[in-house]
Amino acid sequence: MTVGVRFRTPRLVYARFLGDPPPVGSHVVVRQEGRLYLGQVRTPPTEGRPEGEVLRLASKDDLDRAVRLKEKAEDALYLLRALFREKGLPGKPLLCEYDLEEKALRVHLARLEEKKLPFGQIVKEARSRLGLRVELVLEGPREAAGLVGTLGACGMESCCSTWLQGFAPVSIRMARDQGLPLSPEKISGPCGRLLCCLAYEHPVYEELLRELPRKNARVCAKSGVCGKVVKHHPLAQAVDLQTPEGKVVTVHKSELEA
């Protein structure tokens, strides 16, 4: 069995455990790729593919060390950003994190230009400045927004930088099913990708749409009005019918002929 553990990125890492499962919300020390990291348990036991191993619940010393290393990682981040500007490298360091034993520094990068990142040069320069092993992780637009922290269209802090524990697939069909404007400015987040929240209510809209005739179907109302379905109103359980004369009439589902 495994539990989902979140470090400092939005993505969950599933780590196996021995004995009693660590409580959700507790801080644990996880061994991943031969190094120790402090993370927080975000899920109850589940059948996930293990990417690490929970060694123990975090002690006060572990928590204090993590705070100190977080501050030290901020200094490393400023240094690396200066290095990128100095060398004109096509990327932006977003986040640095030390392992608990300070054996390595993991650097999360965003690609700013459609150019191949010179990973070898970056690692060599960073290692010479910091004096330890450096690992680079290239992040996509959604992951980068979660690491930096942004505001959503709702005016609140974005889900990916607060509580979200992974990215679900989002499609333009979700916006279409919910009757939202298909303008990229209206349905895209600060990351430039489709809003993650489009997926939250989509199962409900799918269920509501099953109760309505499909678009472009020709149906009749009990009142005798017939026409082509041109628009759905899922929440109101109604459709707009366009009559042969070009008039648009809104009809509730209960008023449609079988």
TrEMBL record:
Residues covered by the PSP1 C-terminal domain: 52-139
Domain of life: Bacteria
Pfam families in the cross-refs: PSP1 (PF04468)
InterPro entries in UniProt: PSP1_C
Protein name as annotated: PSP1 C-terminal domain-containing protein
